[in-house]
Amino acid sequence: MKGIILAGGTGSRLHPLTLSVSKQLMPVYDKPMIYYPLSTLMYAGIKEILIISTPKDLPLFKELLGDGKNYGCSFSYAAQESPNGLAEAFIIGEEFIGKDKVALILGDNIFYGTGLASLMQSNNDPNGGIIYAYRVNDPQRYGVVEFDEEGKVISIEEKPKAPKSNYVVPGIYFYDSDVVSIAKSIQPSLRGELEITDVNKEYLKRGKLHVSILDRGTAWLDTGTFQALMQASQFVEVLEERQGMIIGSIEVAAYEMGYVSKSQFKELAQPLLKSGYGERLLGILNKEI
Which residues in the chain land under pLDDT 70? Predict the structure, then answer.
């Protein structure tokens, strides 16, 4: 399976912070924001990843991440000329996807939870589409999932004024290769965007959309506002400082998934020692049992 990170957009809700730099390059505690979704894909067992961003920001992502070989992965890049919707990622990535299955994750979404990696790995061979449902207090901001009495999905609505449930679709999606033709077939919404909800509706219409509810032990953070960005940093800081772990590290993900050897992992840590981040990476080795 292949993966796509959509890291475009103008980041207007974070102006003036994002007037000159991509939102997905902003810090979330001790790492660039994009490290978190990238490590999520890596923990899902995905090594071939396409990063989509604006033409202006793509060179910065390339400078930060390179071709992925240092992490035992393959990173490639493509431009989204304007924010035309999430589903456009599959049209932009058509050649990259080919006949393979693909996961899409949003560059400003952070996921954390025990068992999350195993859940993602179990979903990386979909026959149709696999999405998740997560309970929130403000569902009107997202794509809302409606279930019947038996827990079966009966509808999905994008940013409804009167949500039919408190369960929304977070920013990670798994699809078979039909997603490219589906994305090409949908029409822009009133916002002028190709909505991911319309892709999900088509899979639902075909009877091939599977929805898993993320349990209460899973954290999903959307870092699109000043408050949410600060809360995400505080969340990561508390967990890392109290438990001595590292969340959202692409270096740790590469090592724990076996993409790099112990010696390669040590090499990744060396240039990062002065900031303390590299020392914390090496501390992972000392905690191994």
Answer: 288-289
Give CA–CA dist 207/112, Å, rounded.
Answer: 29
Q: What is the DSSP string of 44-66?
A: TT--EEEEEE-TTTHHHHHHHHT
- Strands 27-28 and 31-32 come out as antiparallel
Question: In one letter, which amino acid is 45?
Answer: G
Q: Are 41 and 5 in contact (CB under 8 A)?
A: yes
* Pairing verdict, β 143-147 and 153-158: antiparallel
In terms of Cβ atoms closer than 10 Å to its own Cβ (0-12, 13-18, 19+), residue 255 is: buried
pLDDT digits (tens, 9 = 90+) for 214-242: 988 899 998 888 999 999 999 999 999 88
* Largest separation between any pair of C-alpha atoms in the chain: 56
Which tokens go with 37?
């979704």
What is the C-alpha separation between 50 and 119, in angstroms, rounded?
Answer: 22
Contact 68, 254 (CB under 8 A): no
3-state class of 177 per DSSP?
A: coil
Global pTM reads: 0.95
DSSP annotation of 270:
G
Residue written as tokens 């999900």?
200
Distance (Å, whole) CA 95 – CA 188? 22
Q: How far apart are CA 45 and CA 168, in angstroms?
A: 25
